[in-house]
């Protein structure tokens, strides 16, 4: 299922075994949503911790959930900006541009799961990076802010996605990562500037 240089912009790094396993675990969750014919499923990674705000954030997301939505609950370290779709005094639902990294917690509708399974039969980059390419997935990604979710991998001994790298590999990543993220940012802004289809406008 893993094939390098599958999409553009090209992802400059080879995936680790842990990144492959993480992607496959998310596909397994999406498949469970489809197989069990759920309206939506809440997917939490093993380093997600929910706080006092999460219940209100989840309720808000469910109240405004639409078929095809993929609603992120970004951890507190992930800052996302975008167009505000719906808001109350304390919570808002935004369409992030670009979509933030990390997949600590998300509410995935059945329609989104079907689409994601189809477009990830082969993949070439980590799952959170792949989800940024909404022009490829055609999935409506939204984010709840604040989410009430915190990523606690450091308390659990560190992320399983981290791996030891040589000085050359570290330098390469420090050089290529900002260039790649700049390309994703430009493509995200260009995609969001395109005129929306009627069904997309009505989704809010």
In short:
The protein has 204 residues and is an alpha+beta fold. It is built from seven helices and eight strands; from the N terminus they run αββαββββαααββαα.
Which short descriptors sum up this protein?
disordered C terminus, 204 residues, two-stranded antiparallel ribbon, 39% helix, 7 helices, six-stranded mixed β-sheet, single chain, alpha+beta
Write structural notes for this entry.
There is one protein chain. With 204 residues, the protein is α+β, with helices and mostly antiparallel strands. It has one domain (17-152, 164-202). The protein contains seven helices and eight strands. Strands 1-6-3-7-5-4 form a six-stranded mixed beta sheet, sandwiched between helices. The protein has a two-stranded antiparallel sheet with strand order 2-8. Helix 1 packs across helix 3. The radius of gyration is 17 Å and the shape is globular. Residues 198-204 have low confidence and may be disordered.
The SSE order reads: HEEHEEEEHHHEEHH
Calculate the terminal CA-CA distance, rounded to whole Å.
35 Å
How many domains? The number is 1
Number of helices: 7
What is the quaternary state of this protein?
single chain
Secondary-structure map:
Layout: H1 17-35, E1 40-44, E2 48-50, H2 54-63, E3 69-72, E4 82-87, E5 92-96, E6 105-109, H3 110-119, H4 127-131, H5 134-137, E7 140-145, E8 149-151, H6 167-193, H7 198-202
Parallel strand pairs: 3-7
Antiparallel strand pairs: 1-6, 2-8, 3-6, 4-5, 5-7
């Amino acid at each position: 299922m893993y094939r390098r240089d599958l999409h553009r912009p090209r992802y400059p790094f080879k995936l680790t075994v842990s990144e492959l396993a993480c992607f496959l675990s998310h596909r397994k969750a999406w498949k469970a949503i489809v197989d069990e014919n759920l309206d939506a499923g809440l997917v939490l990674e093993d380093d997600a911790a929910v706080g006092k705000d999460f219940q209100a954030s989840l309720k808000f997301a469910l109240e405004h959930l639409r078929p095809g939505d993929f609603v992120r609950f970004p951890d507190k370290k992930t800052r996302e900006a975008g167009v505000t779709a719906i808001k109350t005094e304390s919570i808002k639902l935004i369409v992030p541009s670009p979509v933030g990294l990390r997949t600590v917690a998300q509410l995935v509708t059945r329609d989104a799961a079907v689409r994601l399974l189809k477009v990830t039969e082969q993949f070439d980059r980590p799952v959170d990076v792949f989800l940024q390419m909404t022009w490829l997935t055609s999935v409506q990604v939204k984010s709840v802010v604040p989410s009430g979710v915190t990523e606690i991998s450091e308390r659990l001994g560190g992320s399983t996605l981290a791996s030891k790298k040589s000085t050359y590999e570290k330098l390469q990543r420090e050089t290529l990562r900002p260039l790649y993220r700049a390309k994703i940012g430009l493509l995200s802004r260009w995609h969001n500037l395109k005129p929306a289809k009627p069904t997309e406008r009505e989704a809010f």
